[in-house]
Predict the 3D structure of the following.
Amino acid sequence: MRAKPRQPSFMDRLFASRGESPAHGNAEISSGGCVPGLEGVPAFTVWQHAPSPVPVVIAVPHAGRSYPPDLVSRMRQPAYSAPRLEDRLVDLIGRAVAERTGAALLVAHAPRAMIDLNRASDDVDWEMVGGGAPDASSAPASPASGRRARSGLGLVPRRLPGLGELWKWPIAHDDLAARIAGVHQPYHTALATLLEGVRGRWGAALLIDLHSMPPLPARAGEPAAEFVVGDRFGAACDGALVAEAFAMLGQARRLAAHNRPYAGGYVLERHARRHAGVHCLQLEIDRRTYLDAALAEPGPGLEATVDLVSALVQRMAIAVADLGRERGYWRAAAE
């Protein structure tokens, strides 16, 4: 009986026009920044292959679980509030997907309770900082930043629905500065470097900013979306890539929403450069798809969710490579 010929994988197809092997070997691992109050603990870790085997970067800014004792002591009801600020264990999905696909991966270890990496460094509610704003130049750069800070979810989260104020006393200016210098600045520098390296190789790059969300409410008798794809209403990503994402989710028969209620935040604002070939999407995943019934630990759906997101990355990697080719980058690089 003749064996069936092997079907080309997505990497085979991706590399065929480059004359390269899709094998990417072991990832190079590096860390950066520091978590204030935890000596020797980095703010984030990067996994990447050189050269990049796919034009995709996955970032996980809200799953950090490295809590300094001093931070916990300042919190009201930390056992309740800290996990609710996290994108609980979504980094497990990011790690597994990156291992399967070869995508570069950036995972924050500093918790969102300490500093929110999806907010601008000036998005501060100065009423929660001892002594208030240092001068008028500390005002938010945009009205949107000011609204987020006043809502309680600025650079340093201040309050949560059902709990109210998170902190027992104000934050010191030097504490806030240490969080920005140790976590926020190096994280975004590392992300920009990753994206530029991938764009430089492929002519285009896609950032998937990976998040998880509490279950959305059902409306008008319709089941709620399990995934939300955000592109800042078209500003952060080419429409063809967004269409590929929805086509993939639709073929998998998974309900998905576009930009509502999550269109993407500061990460997309800062790093998307469509004109230069850097595209960014925010992907929100319903925690019920991969956690247990208590939404606390890995659940029976974790493997299926990893399968789905891996397939999504594979499909979008080909589309991103096509964008790079359309820009004439591969032809120019070969000349």
